Amino acid sequence: MTYDETTLAQLTEDAAAIIARYPVKRSALLPMLHLVQSVDGFVSPDGIQFCAEQLDLTAAEVSAVATFYTQYKRRPNGEYQVGVCTNTLCAVMGGDRIWDELSEHVGVGHDETTEDGKITLERLECNAACDYAPVMMVNWEFFDNQTPESAKQVVDDLRAGKDVAPSRGPAKVCGFKEVSRVLAGFEDGRADEDQGAGAATLAGLETAKGQGWKEGSK
Amino acid sequence: MTDLVPVLSATWGAEKSWSLDTYTEAGGYAPLKKALGMEPGDIIQAVKDSGLRGRGGAGFPTGMKWGFLPPDDGGPRYLVVNADESEPGTCKDIPTMMSAPHQLIEGVAITSFAIGCNHAFIYLRGEVVHVYRRLLQAVREAYEAGHLGKDIHGSGFDLDVTVHAGAGAYICGEETALLDSLEGRRGQPRLKPPFPAVAGLYARPTVVNNVESVASVPAIVDRGVEWFTAMGTERSKGMGLFSLSGHVTRPGQYEAPLGITLRELLEMAGGIREGHELKFWTPGGSSTPIFTQDHLDTPLDYESVGAAGSMLGTRALQIFDETTCVVRAVTRWTEFYKHESCGKCTPCREGTYWLTQILKRVEGGRGTEADIQQLLDTCDSIAGRSFCALGDGATSSIISSVKLFREEYEAHVEQGGCPFDHSAAALFDYSETPATEEAHA
Fold first, then answer.
1. Could you tell me which chain A residue has the CA closest to the CA of B128?
2. The complex's ipTM?
3. Mean pLDDT across A38-59
4. Residue B89: which of A75, A90, A84, A119 has the closest Cα?
5. Domain residues for B257?
6. What does pTM read for this prediction?
7. pLDDT at B440
């Protein structure tokens, strides 16, 4: 492994915190792979070796798991993972067009990264926000009701280094490594940040009020 | 007209709805204290009596699932919450956890107490980072308030909760694949039996329940079995979140008694988008056979939807109007199943590849009449012959759409291409550039 002393010490401390959450050590593997991505920006050979040593697994066993899941990247990832949902519902509502225009605009295809290392594009499967179709995810934050123009604007702003807020979520989209650290189970203090619940989330509640239901009633 | 009944969604509009303070002000965690004063067996009986059925798709009675656990042998037993919401069209658990995570945490605490579990897990899909933030914070808040941890509210009951993020794999929504994934392995389904109740997480007795099922438990404990059974139909009791998406004026989450109809829901949601009419819809996600206008009055409960040839599933009502090409829709779903097939069993792994190739050929206008029959034959080799329900689900939209819209498949063959203007189906204006081949491989 080529980690310097400080990095390795931090990784080891974090790994111990993760392992402590589970009765059986191997359960820590998925969060630890997120942790590796938070340091290296992808699941690196060093990271695989580190997980293997911490969990008494072989590197092959760790690789076998890492290659199964789409969120684990085998090559250095862009700072922002931009996914356009092209599963049926979003695709039909315009996701296909958004993908076509965005991909052409950015100049990379599925699972490819721009030369500046900023953007990795992905054709996304359903991300459980269908009532906000067409949906785009940036580092796993929700960008709802997108159009080709809005999607391109988001990506342009990200590449220009501007802060970009999702439709629902924190005040700004964090970088791939920061988000990977959260996915390893470490809080980043942004849970209270909010852009509102969203119209579709509250659509039924609004209708219920019109039917005479009162907030706070049972 | 059936009225909506906000229960899980009741506090979603409140200021900082996700915080412990807001949840407690609305009466939260009182049900936990009540439950801790009850006999665990009585809680299980109440949930059985309520008729609550699994809200994750399969509809198995929740209380009965709890009751399957073998008698206490002194070793650990686990509750694992399935928060891997990934079925296309399904978008109910994510807003639940984002807006009211404590509802789930309280449900976890009560359920764990009832089944004798001291360490529960919430397996959240990894692609929703803000939901994970909210859950992590909610669990921490609950520990700090003494709702989790050692000797909860002086009851002698201990409970730890771990919120675990997955890493992108639809198959992990299958309960045994989820358990393998939670054990740090590739998410592949296990052979059943043994069922998780007997040998689940770490081969110990385990209950796996969906988010909405578990989140419904505090209200049942609080308001009673009769309140719950007064809602719904004879064998489908209670309320559920109905998620409307697609070509509908006001898409979103509508919490209603089971048995409500799409006609009623559409009326509340402002109808199909203006100037258009309903063509087809899924009652419960992409793994459930599609419905048409003929099913507008089918009560959306387990029995009625089943009798009409589909499944209530996750109540993910994906609505498509007449501008939508059904072949395009089905092809894309099939590509999804191909992508998500875990590869463990041959019918699903190979079958979904074949189906995708045939469908793309037909959609692209290069198919033949024989291809349509080949689709059905291939489905026949998958449905009922694959290791888990993913394979079955992959065939649902194909079989049902060929049955209901065969002429549309034939039109693709006869015209040598898709007869639809895809831009007409989009929710924003654009004109189609010269017929480009779909960009995806």
1. A140
2. 0.98
3. 98
4. A90
5. 239-321
6. 0.97
7. 46
